[in-house]
Automatic annotation (TrEMBL):
Keywords: Signal
SUPFAM superfamilies with a match to the protein in the record: Pectin lyase-like
Name of the molecule in the record: Right handed beta helix domain-containing protein
Domain of life the protein comes from: Bacteria
Amino acid sequence: MAKINLRVFFLLMVLIAALSGCRNDFEFETAAGNELRFSKDTVYLDTIFTNIGSSTYTLKVYNKSSKDIKIPEIKLNRGEQSGYRLMVDGQPGKSFQNIELLSKDSMFIFVETTVDITTQTADKEFLYTDQLIFANGSQSQSVELVTLIRDAVFLYPQKDENGNKETLLFGEDEIEGFWLDENDAVNGNELHWTADKPYVIYGYAAVPGSKTLQIDAGTEVHFHAGSGLLVADQATLNISGTVENPVIIQGDRLEPAYENVSGQWGMIGLTVGSNANIENATIKNAGNGLWVNKNNGVVNLHNVQIYNCADFGILGVAANIIGTNIVTNNCGMAGFGANYGGNYTFVHSTFANYWFKPNHTAVYLDNGDGTSEFTLQAKFENSIIYSSSNEALTLNYTEPNSQTFDVKFTNTLVKFFDINNVVYGQFPYSFEDTDIFENCLIARNNQMYRPFFADYRNNQMMITEQATDLINFGTTNTTVSVPEDILGKPRTTKDLGAYLHVVQPTEGEE
């Protein structure tokens, strides 16, 4: 028993000695005011909309000295009234005292902001700033905080007295959404969107039957996650952009990291019996850019760009669409898809797809589901159908019948690399049949008839001067019907696709 007690006593003495020897490691000196170093001198928080919280940004603080230091205070210069929020050492707040930082160590400070622009200015944009102060009496160090705030029109479902949000019936499903009102008590005419302020949409905004949503040139529309636009039976969507002032439709995440991220919002849906005229518009980062289901009359598209959609850029379901100067790229399924037949004409259009995963295509056409057959008529003239996958064109028919599966490609580039010749030469991939493929360029490998796009990764889909096979290859009559390219340039040559070819500067040129 005595031996055990002796051992316990000995261990206690060793522990006490060890703790005493380490005591100086936990003695912190007050920071003199210049020991700290920062990962950046200014934290630029990306543009946000008024009253909408930003993403979280990170500042790293370093103690480069050989001393353990204590920072007397970390605070925002605007104090508790600041629109910025901090998290330091795991604690949220706007000021912090006696923060300890070991020698040669570092810590993270997380920064967010939410600002009501109306409390700052009557302007539509405002540069909101503050300073993050690392104080020590009369000495201090600081880091600038900068955010651009934009005013906007917010449209969203209302709540009833029980807190339940408005819903819409979409097929057999209820979805979160609301009807646009031309006499709304807060927003006034919600069926006329102007370039005065951006529009930020939560839930699905719906155009009522017999009504028209007019979207003017230069308007910016931002959809929140899970949101979109629906056009009801007998309703119309008019998007009236110009070459100089196109309409931009995208998600509501404004950070550069989200510039080309697909699936950030739902879709623009033209339901059964609806109609649309869309001119000079860019639609990007949706689930499906434009979904057209058995529309009434003809959906006319002119100078429309659709990028980075998780599924389809344009999906027609037994629809009727005419498109000129259309550009699609980077879509998970296809740039354009026709399901259950329909009637489609595309002239001087570029359907490209450089999606980062396999099994995508640029154009997909079918006339049924294998059990039910519908009539498909599809024409492509002076166009480009190209993808990073081997087969940029997918044709699925119910029966090999040119009456119900009537497709025609004229003076068009089609990439179709059927490695094992499984379907090459068989209907409808009858590339020698001029009733289907008239005067077309069929790229049977990755080197044939390359379009040499300017920068397909960033959706710059102009062909360059290297694409000699595509320059001036179109038919004259078709080019005359669309005399200007998507940028408004006169078509001096009959180049395939939506753009006239461009000459890229060589090294050393601007």
